[in-house]
Amino acid sequence: MPKHTNSLHNQNQEKEKRADELIIANKELAFQNEEKEKRADELAIANENIVSQLQNIQALQKIDRAILGSQDLDLTLHVVLEQAKSELKVDAAAILLLSPYSQILEFAAGIGFRSKSIEHSRLRLGEGIGGHTELEEAIVSVTNLAENSTEFAHTSLLANEGFVTYFRAPIIFKGEVRGVLEVFHRLPFTPDQDWLNFLEILAGQAAIAVDSATNLTKLQNANRELFNAYDSTLEGWSRALDLRDNETEGHSQRVTEMTIKLAKMAGVNEAELVHVRRGALLHDIGKMGIPDNILLKPDKLSEEEWIIMRKHPFFAFKLLSPIAYLRPALDIPYCHHEKWDGSGYPRGLKGEQIPLAARLFAVVDIWDALRSDRPYRKSWTAEKVIGYIKSLSGTHLEPSSVELFMKMISEDEIDVN
Ligand code: C2E
Ligand code: SIN
Ligand code: SIN
Ligand code: FE
Ligand code: FE
Fold first, then answer.
1. Among 27-31, 118-122, 340-344, where is mean pLDDT lowest?
2. Whose CA is nearest to atom 33 of ligand 1?
3. 266 lines ligand 3 (CB under 6 A)
4. Are residues 202 and 272 in the same domain?
5. Any residues with CB less than 8 A from the CB of 75 and at least 6 apart, and which?
6. Distance of alpha carbon 374 from its chain centroid, rounded?
7. Protein residue whose Cα sits closest to atom 29 of ligand 1
8. 168 and 253, same structural domain?
9. Given a cut of 80, is residue 148 above it in pLDDT?
10. For the chain, which end, N or C, has fewer CB atoms within 10 Å of the first or last residue's CB respectively?
11. Sign (positive/negative) of CA torsion 262, 268, 272, 274?
């Protein structure tokens, strides 16, 4: 072979070798690129997961805040549903709660429905999706509602809502089923494990919301019942006191109504009125400590008897102040015989040292006492009592209270005969 041919052959061989090397290098590069892309994809997925988990956490925080911050179960359940709708990306969601008496699941809250028919849903336990005879502790799903509609309990809903998939998670608290969280899609949908987990977590949040609201309602009802029972007891006491004091039927109730009216006119707030009411009902409870021979004496009291009689507001203080529930109601029983000019009893308080409720009550007390018969005198006419009360203004009684009282009886035309 000529020398130059030989060298050409060598050159060709070299080129082929380089080309092979280039191909290998290219392949490696392509592989590296693929790897990079794969890693980038993985990173993107990881990022998405982190973002969606963050959103889930934020959703749960919103629900926690709603549970802690609100005493209104409807409102809290609505927050749960809003989060279910946005985080699970469903078209509609509802919470049905188990009525403890009927064992029927009744609509409690809904979001995303086109019609109101969901609000009438009543699911009997056992009437679930085909084959499910009880609410078990697992998610139930129907992924083709059109085909399964005969087995689906909400058949009436389907007609106008156009749902395709249905998922339901039981709301369980301390091992007891309290209801269900239902979510609906109008397009086909296949959930992943994260989605199913979050549906369960939301059902758990609903369980906490229901439980805390139930406890609060129970507590409020118990409190209300207790207070109602107390107030009925007070009315009973107050009638018993009237009987012993030779009072006319309904006297305590009457002075109480008038005092409440006067206090409202004077701008006393609702919370205070509760105590004014209790205080007025019990204004003379201290007379329980006055012996019959003095209290029921058909004649004027002697000086010694007066000393004992004037103790009745102090007896009221001794009797009521140990009762926390009645301590704020003490103003009237303790201070209703104080006088504006400081000459009253038991402490000789003067002017605004006397609690407002007691200043107002003193006018009503004198009015009603003098309008009634007593064993030691006949009742006075309205004009005579009005004239008498006006004459006490500025000495025995607070002028503005007297004025307000006169306004009240002229407006009401209270039995002026
Ligand atoms: P009460 O009968 O409930 O009377 C409440 C207040 O209405 C009296 O407070 C007084 O300010 C006025 N009041 C009642 N009746 C008369 C009256 O006939 N004339 C005049 N000017 N004011 C009258 P007070 O005076 O501190 O009396 C407290 C309680 O002492 C009375 O409650 C009543 O239970 C008893 N009391 C007062 N006077 C007599 C009396 O002469 N005989 C007897 N047995 N008890 C009397
Ligand atoms: C009365 O006059 O019967 C008792 C009331 C009072 O002394 O002011
Ligand atoms: C009372 O102190 O019993 C009220 C006065 C009355 O109306 O008899
Ligand atoms: Fe009194
Ligand atoms: Fe009275």
1. 118-122
2. 295
3. no
4. no
5. 66
6. 49
7. 309
8. no
9. no
10. C
11. positive
CA of 366 to the centre of ligand 2 (A): 10
pLDDT of residue 137: 62
CB atoms within 10 A of CB 262: 23
132 has pLDDT over 50: no
170: domain CATH number is 3.30.450.40
At 337 the three-state DSSP class reads coil
Query: Could you tell me if 346 and 387 lie in one domain?
Result: yes
Measured from the CB, is residue 300 less than 6 Å from ligand 1?
Answer: yes
Domain that holds residue 273: 245-410
Q: Could you tell me if residue 11 is inside a domain?
A: no
Please indicate whether residue 398, judged by its CB atom, sits closer than 6 Å to ligand 3. Answer: no
- Assess whether the C-beta atom of 365 lies below 6 angstroms from ligand 3: yes
pLDDT score of 85 more than 90: yes
Please tell me the predicted confidence (pLDDT) of residue 66.
82
Cα(208) to centroid(ligand 5), Å: 52
Q: Assess whether 265 and 211 both reside in one domain.
A: no
Going by pLDDT thresholds of 50, 70 and 90, the confidence category of residue 133 is: very low
231 found inside a domain: no
**Inside any domain, residue 170:** yes
Residue nearest to atom 4 of ligand 1 (CA): 369
200 and 266 fall within a common domain: no
Q: Predicted confidence band at 125 (pLDDT cuts at 50, 70, 90)?
A: low
- Our count of domains for the chain comes to 2
pLDDT for 417 equals 44
Residue 251: CB within 6 Å of ligand 3?
yes
Q: How many beta carbons lie within 10 A of that of residue 343, not counting itself?
A: 11
Tokens read off for 95 = 């919470």
Q: Say if ligand 1 is within 6 A of residue 309 CB.
A: yes
Helix (H, G, I), strand (E, B) or coil at 130: coil
198 shares its domain with 306: no
Asked if residue 366 has its Cβ within 6 Å of ligand 1, the reply is yes
Enumerate residues with CB within 5 Å of ligand 4 (an ion). 284
pLDDT band of 131, cuts 50, 70, 90: very low
Q: Is the shortest distance between the CB of 369 and ligand 1 below 6 Å?
A: yes
Question: Measured from the CB, is residue 378 less than 6 Å from ligand 1?
Answer: no
DSSP labels for 212-265?
HHHHHHHHHHHHHHHHHHHHHHHHHHHHHHHHHTTPPTTHHHHHHHHHHHHHHH
Note whether 214 and 347 are same-domain residues.
no
Least trusted range by pLDDT, from 89-93, 152-156, 163-167: 152-156
198-70-110 Cα angle (round to 5): 50
